[in-house]
Design goal:
By secondary structure, the protein is an all-alpha fold. It has helices at 2-15, 25-40, 48-57, 72-78, 83-96, 109-120, 124-137, 155-159, 165-171, 183-207. The structure holds adenosine-5'-diphosphate and nickel (II) ion.
Length: 213
């Protein structure tokens, strides 16, 4: 398993080297470190090697990167892993994304942990930086007091970039703490969300609008 983890690490370092959408190798590395830290705070039995592999490969095919890679499962088989392991990792990765809140819930503790770690990386100072980086990359407006916060009825609607990055805080980011699974992540999320609210208040003061924090 260690060899597969080393090969996965090498693969993502190369595959995500040029990413400017907030899904670069450093994001993956933070998610891995955070996921392993969450594992240490859990009482249930967790396969930490599966957690690490899911964290490493979770964004290789993210639609936002517009850059195709073989599936995580196909890579794992190529690296000598079993079909069973490949299926386990593909299933966990498919369960992790937010998808506007229309995703089906994770079916393993390993997927729950990586999902929590990935969501923490969308919160706090790093979450703010990533949201504006992705918004800019996607051609979405920074902010616009004329554009209201949207409420979605499907994933397709959520994917339409007709909003603003400031609205994305309300449309997605502030919903994340209530969707976390582990006590460790819930605790860390509180501090990160508090910082984001301070940021929105200051942004509103500087721009002369009131962004509901
Ligand atoms: P999803 O794409 O399902 O929302 P991800 O976890 O893949 O879930 O999101 C990854 C990053 O992209 C997060 O930091 C998130 O805030 C950012 N992001 C996604 N959609 C937008 C958007 N419309 N505006 C700004 N940032 C976005
Ligand atoms: Ni991610």
């Amino acid at each position: 398993m260690r060899t597969i983890l080393d090969l996965a690490d090498k693969y993502v370092q190369e595959a995500m080297r040029h990413d400017c959408t907030g899904h670069d190798y450093l994001h993956v590395d933070r998610v891995r470190t955070m996921a392993l830290a969450i594992c240490r705070g859990e009482n249930s039995v967790v396969d930490t090697e599966v957690v690490e592999l899911v964290a490493l490969l979770h964004d290789i095919n993210d639609a936002k990167r517009q850059c195709a890679s073989p599936s995580a499962g196909a890579l794992i088989v190529e690296w000598g892993g079993s079909e069973k392991l490949a299926k386990r990792i593909d299933t966990a990765i498919a369960e992790i994304g937010f998808k506007g809140g229309f995703n089906s819930p994770p079916t393993s503790v390993e997927a729950e942990i990586v999902q929590d770690a990935d969501r923490l990386d969308a919160l706090g100072a790093i979450g703010i930086a990533r949201a504006f980086a992705y918004g800019g990359h996607a051609g979405q407006k920074l902010l616009d007091p004329e554009i209201p916060v949207r409420h979605f009825t499907s994933e397709n609607e959520y994917r339409k970039l007709t909003g603003t990055t400031v609205n994305h805080f309300h449309e997605k980011l502030f919903r994340l703490p209530g969707l976390l699974h582990t006590a460790t992540a819930k605790r860390l999320a509180e501090e990160r969300v508090a910082f984001m609210r301070i940021f929105l208040r200051q942004l509103g003061d500087e721009c002369g609008y009131e962004f509901s924090p």
